[in-house]
Amino acid sequence: MEKNDFFLKRIRELADLSYQRDIVTFSDFLNLNEQNMVNSLRQQFPQIIVESSGGYANAERQMVAFHPDALAFTWEYPIDCLKIEPKSLKFSEELTHRDYLGALLNLGVDRAMIGDILVQEKAAWFFCNKKMTEFFIKNLCRVRHTNILITIVDKQEELPSPKMETIHGTCASVRLDSLIALAFKASRSSMVSYIEGGQVFVNGKLITSNGYEPREGDIISVRGKGRFIYEGTSHQTRKGRSSIQLSLYI
């Protein structure tokens, strides 16, 4: 059985368990492709509500929850947010997303236990399955050569605001390939392989058509490149091109 078949089997098991026992069940943190596969199965569970969260608004990696329509009790996602900061700013390095993720995975942890990692200046915030919180606090002591401290973040206000770069440009038409080319400063033709290769998602849904027309406010993710928000068009130029504004996550 292929990896995707195992994954879909597990998703069906979680949905069936929720229905049979009248409980809430949760997946691990899923990437965009896995979230898309879950969405493709929704119609198979008419008696089950399927929701998702990554611990904060517009998270890329998300945990999916399955629960009966008439659930009688309140519940919450088993997600914690942990902050990593250096013990001494004076001796800290410039650390990247890759550095933090590598340090976490080097502990022997499955990637599915970890959600998004937000990096800002000398600190990082990452989301994890609640059952792993104590393990990370006890075992993650260093990122590269920097000795670090880990604390639990209790309030959403303590999370950093995402850094965005505003991009302006013009397109002959508001097509997916045109917007991606504008966002990542590439040619439309070079973006075709990303779209047709199943690497482009709009609001978590896989899109494989170059001519797909996003709507204002859509979040477009390109695996291996990044993601951005399509903010909309402002006016038509004299040559009939649309003036576009994007907000790129950096």
Automatic annotation (TrEMBL):
Keywords: RNA-binding. Residues 174-234 form the RNA-binding S4 domain. PROSITE patterns: S4. This is RNA-binding protein.
